[in-house]
Design goal:
Length: 413
């Protein structure tokens, strides 16, 4: 069966008619219809190839025959719930745990990042008997109600009365634009101390903290990389019941890994043989093809190429990255840090015209956000940086506000 049943225009019309308008689409003025993908590339209905620098959830790589063979084979054999013994469940859990500290000992499988975070919250509250949660400014933790409550990226759209009174927001540990910057003698301690103050204030008001939740690297919040030592210091001020969340290369599986003392608190049923077979196959590909090593090497190369662009283009205020998680913050003024929002939108739209997909995010939507599949190559890095160079050279400085760009928003999770 062909992946494409309708002409693109018809797909657009049907989407407008049947899909809720809050489900945002990339490049809403001229959306892309993707019908297949391979490696780091996606292909539209005309066979045009796009280099994917943003896909995020397909973090290993797009379509991989081995993975889908495993899935098909397991589907032929059996799919059922986790209340029967099955080797895929225990094998997958064992292999995931082997990548983590011993303390994070046992797994619960679920279907999505949102479900995993919701479960982590539930168990943290039950284990501690406390209710309050500390989250970070601009954080995004998922789309279900319990997580909108702790996702300032989303809940800033709510009124004060709609916001959950048990949720406390600490500053984003952003050393470029945040409260404590790179010129601070010890930003990690300064940001961690703020968390300590929040805990003390909550105690004084009779509240008690159940959990501190944070993305290890804040993505929607603008590709923020916390200063070294920040999480370790924050952990000293909290009950030590950490969890870890992993997700499975666009397949419907995620896992929360708990210490044993927390994990017995609530019955949990997720993790079926098919999803676990896929999870195992994804781990095989990551290991056999050394995708983690590749992400580190290519990510460093990409960051070094971007650093050179920073010397050339005043619009680039900051480059920050860990592996293939890289952010390029565009500013109109390097001292005032005036966000170059329209220019960032201009860059991603111009890249799209050249068949490269990138997005812009952060509270000011001025951070170019790289999260390509882990099989991204040095040639891909060179290509995208070369194109960005040409685009930034063409943007006059200080840049004019383009009416078209300012309305080009709507790139959301
Ligand atoms: C940091 C983070 N947490 C949670 C989620 C929610 O995951 P899901 O969309 O699988 O529910 C996302 C999704 O983008 C995410 O980026």
């Amino acid at each position: 069966m062909s992946a494409e049943r309708f002409e693109k225009k018809e797909t657009i019309d049907l989407r407008k008619r049947y899909i809720g308008p809050s489900c945002k689409i990339f490049f809403s003025h001229d959306p892309i219809k993707i019908v297949r993908a391979k490696g780091q590339y996606m292909y539209d209905e005309k066979g045009q190839r796009y280099l994917d620098c943003i896909n995020n959830v397909a973090h290993g790589k797009h379509t991989r025959t081995g993975i889908y063979t495993q899935r098909a084979q397991q589907m032929e054999l059996l799919n059922t719930n986790s209340r029967f013994l099955h080797d895929n469940l225990v094998l997958y859990a064992q292999r995931l745990q082997a990548t983590l500290p011993d303390k994070l000992a046992v797994c619960y499988f679920v279907n999505s990042g949102s479900e995993a975070n919701d479960l982590a919250l539930r168990l943290a509250r039950q284990y501690t008997g406390h209710r309050d949660i500390i989250t970070l400014e601009n954080a995004y933790h998922g789309h279900v109600s319990s997580l909108i409550d702790i996702s300032p990226y989303k809940f800033h759209q709510l009124s004060d009365t709609e916001q959950n009174q048990f949720v406390h927001v600490a500053s984003s540990p952003d050393v470029y634009r945040g409260k404590h910057r790179a010129d601070h003698p010890d930003p990690a301690t300064a940001y961690a101390d703020e968390v300590k103050d929040i805990i003390n204030k909550a105690h004084k008001k009779g509240g008690k903290i159940a959990a501190f939740i944070a993305e290890s690297l804040q993505s929607c919040g603008g590709q923020v990389i916390p200063p070294v030592g920040y999480f370790q210091q924050v952990a000293q001020y909290l009950p030590r019941t950490s969890t870890h969340l992993l997700m499975g290369n666009v397949n419907l599986i995620s896992v929360v890994i708990f210490p044993l003392c927390v994990a017995y608190l609530w019955p949990q049923f997720g993790g079926n043989p098919v999803s676990c077979a896929i999870g195992l196959a994804v781990l095989d590909v990551i290991e056999k093809e050394d995708l983690q090593g590749n992400a580190l090497r290519v990510g460093q190369y990409l960051t070094s190429l971007l650093e050179k662009q920073k010397e050339k283009h005043l619009l680039i205020g900051d480059i920050r990255g860990r592996g293939l998680f890289v952010g390029v913050e565009l500013v109109r003024d390097r001292l005032k840090l005036t966000p170059a929002t329209a220019e960032a939108q201009e860059v991603i739209y111009r890249l799209k015209e050249q068949y490269i997909l990138l997005s812009a995010d952060g509270p000011h939507r001025n951070v170019l956000k790289f999260k390509p599949p882990m099989c991204f190559t040095t040639e891909d890095a060179e290509l995208v940086v070369e194109k960005i160079d040409v685009i930034l050279t063409g943007i006059s400085f200080p840049p004019p506000l383009c009416g078209l760009c300012t309305t080009r928003k709507g790139q959301s999770v």
